[in-house]
Automatic annotation (TrEMBL), chain A:
Positions with biased composition (Acidic residues): 121-143
Gene name of the record: Pole3
GO biological process: DNA damage response; heterochromatin formation; leading strand elongation
This protein's name: DNA polymerase epsilon subunit 3
Subcellular location: Nucleus
Keywords of the record: Acetylation, Coiled coil, DNA-binding, Nucleus, Phosphoprotein
Automatic annotation (TrEMBL), chain B:
Keywords: Nucleus
Primary location recorded for the protein, binned into one broad class: nucleus
Source organism of the structure: Catharus ustulatus (Russet-backed thrush)
GO biological process, one term: DNA-templated DNA replication
Localisation per UniProt entry: Nucleus
GO cellular component: epsilon DNA polymerase complex
Keyword Transferase set for record: no
The protein's name: DNA polymerase epsilon 4, accessory subunit
GO MF entry, a single one: protein heterodimerization activity
InterPro entries tied to this protein: CBFA_NFYB_domain (IPR003958), Histone-fold (IPR009072), Transcr_DNA_Rep_Reg (IPR050568)
Region annotation Disordered: where it falls in the sequence: 1-34
One Pfam family matching this protein: CBFD_NFYB_HMF
Domain Transcription factor CBF/NF-Y/archaeal histone: from-to ranges: 39-99
Superkingdom assignment: Eukaryota
Length: 143, 148
């Protein structure tokens, strides 16, 4: 029996929320339709990835970048997505930058505090630092 | 008149279900149809799909983000297109049959996808989705060729 890629599905709750927000109030969606859309969304990611990868390869690059994905959208006849995607990307970049700087500041503060304060303070800082470090900025998808 | 308004979102038991707090737009901008906001889909799940492609070596975090956002736009588009068909049928509940016809975007997806003629399909959204589950491994792209 073929292995069903169940874990490659996107979370139902999020998909449902996106659908509901796109529709006027009072409109509902059947479970089957929702499930179908969810699968189509997974398929969309796969195709878009493949398409984007072709652009990366054309550019002799081994890493997919945002530009490749945008080119893929055009190729897939979803040009109208490009503008909103570029906007979202700007917001995302700003936020990432903000996070990085916040982390740098926190580290600087933590360092000087460690030198002055007692252990209790250290523990608090450690906790904070762990939370900050979770979203790994430099992380890339690696096969 | 059992138009069961039972679109009660099942308790989808995904591990990384809700978008992580860090990923939701803190004080998002204008609430429009597609506001410039951060992704609601968990990037980890999207990343898992990207990794499923054996031809992909690396993907930047930005790329994964844009993919997630694009997927959301895609879902919105399909839902809206389907709604048009449901309305014609005087229904307030979207059903699966509304998707196949309204999903011209999905067909374009099926038809167009890079290298044009990558595969061709004649049946709309249903077929793409069924195929998705027929393929034993995501890595095997020859399932596309089986169509031709």
């Amino acid at each position: 029996m073929a292995e069903r890629p169940e874990d490659l599905n996107l979370p139902n709750a999020v998909i449902t929320r996106i659908i509901k927000e796109a529709l006027p109030d009072g409109v509902n969606i059947s479970k089957e339709a929702r499930s179908a859309i969810s699968r189509a969304a997974s398929v969309f990611v796969l195709y878009a990835t493949s398409c984007a990868n072709n652009f990366a390869m054309k550019g002799k690059r081994k890493t997919l970048n945002a530009g490749d994905v945008l080119s893929a959208m055009e190729e897939m006849e979803f040009q109208r997505f490009v503008a909103p995607l570029k906007e979202s990307l700007e917001v995302y970049r700003r936020e990432q930058k903000g996070k990085k700087e916040a982390r740098k500041d926190k580290d600087k503060k933590a360092d000087s505090e460690e030198q002055d304060k007692s252990r209790e303070e250290d523990n608090d800082d450690d906790d904070e630092r762990m939370e900050e470090e979770e979203p790994n900025d430099e992380e890339e998808v690696d096969n | 008149m059992a138009a069961a308004a039972a679109a009660v979102p099942g308790p989808g038991p995904g591990p990384a279900e809700a978008a992580a707090p860090g990923e939701e737009a803190a004080g998002a901008g204008p609430q429009g149809p597609s506001p410039a906001r951060l992704a609601r889909l968990p990037l980890a799940r999207v990343k898992a799909l990207v990794k499923a492609d054996p031809d992909v070596t690396l993907a930047s975090q930005e790329a994964v983000f844009v993919l997630a956002r694009a997927t959301e736009l895609f879902v919105e588009t399909i839902a809206k297109d389907a709604y048009v068909y449901a309305q014609q049928g005087k229904r307030k509940t979207l059903q699966r049959k509304d998707l196949g016809m309204g999903a011209c975007s999905v067909l374009a997806l099926a038809k167009g996808c890079c290298n044009g003629g990558f595969f061709h399909l004649s049946g709309g959204a249903e077929i793409i989705m069924d195929l998705f589950f027929l393929s034993p491994k995501m890595g095997e792209k020859n399932f596309y060729q089986r169509l031709q």
